[in-house]
Design brief:
single chain; alpha/beta; 10 helices
Amino acid sequence: MNICIGRQLGSGGREIACRLAEMLGYKFYDKELLNLAAKESGFSEEFFEQNDEHKGFLKSLFHMHIPHVSDINFYKSDISEESLFQFQSDAIRKAAYEGNCVFVGRCADYILRDRTDMLSVFITADLDWRAQQVISRHKCSKDEALKIIHNAESQRASYYNYYTGKRWGDSASYDLCVNSCRLGLDATAQLVRDFIVKSSKL
C-alpha cells in the first residue's frame, strides 16, 4: 500500500505521516524524495530543494551559482520545471514499486493515481491552531505566522493544481480529509492508520 499525504502548513501533516509510517512499518518519504530525484537526474539535491513544491523557480535560474547544476546537464539537458517534475515523478514511482511507502506532498497522489494500492489523505486544521504551530516553530508574531502560512499554501496550491488538474485541499481530490486539531497528532495518525487497514481489506 502507498499512502500519499497532503497537508496544510502547521497542521502537523508531516509529523502525522512520519508516525503513520512507523506504525505501519512503511518507508517514509518527504525531503528524501529530492535526494532520489537528484540521483535519477544528475542534478544536485539543492537544485530540487529550490524548486520544491512551487513553480516559477527556473525564472531565476541564471541568477544562481553554476555549481547547483552539473556542467553536463546544464548544457546538454532541456531544463524546465516540467522536466524536474518528471524526474521527481520517476523517483516516486520507483520508490512505490520497491515497497510500501508514505509520501508527503509533491503530487504523489496524482503520480500514483493508476495504482490500485494507493490511498490519498489530506491533513487540515483550524487556522488559529496552525498559526500557533508556526509561531512556536519560527518564534514570530501571529501576523508573520499568517503571512508564512498564506505564502506557503499559495505555492503548494499553485504547484498541485498545475500538475494534477485538481484542486489542492478540496475534499473531492482525496480519499480522506482529517482535521488534526480535533484529535491531536497521535490520535489522528491512529485514525488514518485504521482507515488504511480497513480499506486494504475491502
